[in-house]
């Protein structure tokens, strides 16, 4: 750098200009989830870190930058995102990531089948293929893991499926009567034969 004062010229040598980009680490999990947590970290040994930011879209997108909090980005929609590590001198390292594992679709409800036999009704439940948890309960009791058919004398059976991302299906219901009195919605008694 040259500086002129009156008729004298002084030359200064500047050796501390930071032209080194920060290092950026981005870890995208592969598991399906309702909200995907992307883990990020960055370091800069020159001028220091200003921050880590992210935005929806690619690097040239005009979308708003958000500051990364606690080293993670919570993503609730599939798509392309850009992560930016910026140091105090303004140097940037940019990574584009594609998120395709956000799952907010509930699985189909299970199907419940019953076969009346002399010792009660044999209940069989068919769950959708994406069910990670197969649950059922009897007469509003506690949810239990389904492991195979079982017998019920009277009451009702409910079943639901939960997928890998934690989405729950609608609850399916099957009423078991085995010839006992049923109370209809209008309050009248009805006997199943």
Counting DSSP E segments of at least 2 residues, the number of strands comes to 18
Please give the share of residues in helix: under 10%
Assign the structural class, choosing from mainly alpha, mainly beta, alpha/beta, alpha+beta, or little secondary structure.
mainly beta
Largest sheet: spatial strand order: 6-5-8-9
- The shape is rod-shaped
Report the uncertain regions. 180-193
Run of helices and strands? EEEEEEEEEEEEEEEEEE
Largest sheet: 4 strands, antiparallel
Name the average pLDDT.
Answer: 88
Number of helices: 0
Structure description:
- This protein has a four-stranded antiparallel sheet, with no helix packed on it.
- With about 190 residues, the protein is mostly beta strands.
- It is built from no helices and 18 strands.
In short:
With 193 residues, the chain is mostly beta strands.
Task: Please tag this protein with its features.
four-stranded antiparallel β-sheet; disordered C terminus; 193 residues; mainly beta; 0% helix
